[in-house]
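Please fill in the sequence for the structure shown.

STRUCTURE ENCODING:
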């Protein structure tokens, strides 16, 4: 499932490439035909991400709400102008300062530092979901690009195309409906005042007998955290995922929020869920080039813990895979 950093990156790309430009909206798949008809010809004025959801404002009190869910993704094609906060990600990893590091392509073919690449016209596409990927198709120079697969919504300016596939939610909302949706979500460090968000998070966790490993995935408690960040944050806090929220010491809960503030910003800037600290230049490059070298425990079931050597455990928690070290997180 796309996690919060991906949705913020998508929102920023829409802000740079669609806001202020009239869009032609269509639903090639047909499942969003009425909604697309309402948006067709309108000019988006604002795009915001909250957790795993994106909201795009149009005139006449119309908002487009998109929740990618597990399988959803946006594909961008045409002239794509990079968000400067993303384009300048070289050297701003958060926990490291790798200025001058050359772009790194990971084992999935992704430029891990700039993630989207240079502006391109009709020959390239950028897929934005949990892991941003780029692909080039030198044989296709048509504009607009042909529809591929089940496209729920296509938004098209004169030079840029965005195709939405497989979302959990794609709907038109009024401003009041949008605000109600956002109000039901937990705090997001890139949306809410960080100090206020911390208090909301601490208060919510302190009330709950639910395991902290489940609470971190509850979007009503905190926005944007998914399976990867959940596992990594719990390990970084040396916290047993089964500990009831109300039994987690307050200073540890505050530490979780503050860690999320840092990790989310790193994810937005780099396009990667980079969760390891203290890497030298070579270690950093390996981590950015390979997802297997990027995390402490996630996707490492049966492998030795990077800290203590104990075998990493894989179990199910609320129907989602949970990775943790039974010694470091005892």
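FILLED IN BY: designer on duty
SEQUENCE:
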């Amino acid at each position: 499932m796309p996690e919060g950093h991906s949705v913020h990156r998508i929102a920023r790309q829409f802000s740079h490439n669609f806001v202020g430009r009239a869009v032609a909206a269509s639903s090639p798949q047909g499942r969003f035909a009425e909604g697309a008809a309402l948006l067709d010809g309108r000019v988006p004025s604002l795009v915001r991400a909250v957790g795993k959801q994106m909201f795009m404002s149009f005139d006449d009190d119309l908002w487009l709400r998109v929740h990618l869910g597990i399988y959803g993704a946006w594909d961008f094609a045409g002239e794509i102008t990079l968000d400067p906060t993303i384009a300048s990600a070289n050297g701003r990893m958060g926990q490291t300062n790798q200025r001058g590091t050359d772009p790194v392509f990971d084992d999935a073919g992704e430029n891990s530092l700039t993630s989207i690449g240079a502006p391109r016209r009709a020959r390239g596409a950028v897929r934005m979901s949990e892991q941003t990927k780029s692909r080039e198709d030198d044989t296709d120079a048509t504009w607009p690009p042909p529809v591929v697969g089940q496209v729920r919504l296509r938004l098209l300016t004169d030079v840029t195309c965005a195709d939405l596939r497989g979302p959990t939610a794609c709907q038109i909302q009024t401003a009041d409906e949008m605000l109600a949706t956002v109000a039901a979500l937990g705090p997001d460090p890139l949306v809410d005042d960080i100090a206020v968000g911390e208090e909301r998070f601490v208060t919510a966790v302190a009330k709950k007998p639910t395991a902290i490993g489940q609470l971190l995935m509850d979007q009503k408690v905190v926005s944007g955290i998914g399976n990867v960040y959940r596992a990594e944050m719990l390990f970084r806090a040396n916290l047993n995922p089964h500990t009831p929220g109300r039994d987690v010491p307050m200073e540890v809960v505050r530490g979780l929020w503050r860690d999320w503030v840092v990790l989310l910003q790193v994810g937005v800037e780099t396009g990667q869920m980079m969760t390891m600290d203290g890497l030298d230049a070579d270690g950093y490059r390996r981590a950015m080039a390979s997802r297997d070298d990027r995390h402490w425990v996630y996707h490492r079931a049966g492998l030795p813990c990077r800290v203590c050597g104990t075998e990493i455990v894989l179990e199910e928690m609320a129907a989602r895979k949970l990775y943790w070290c039974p010694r470091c997180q005892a």
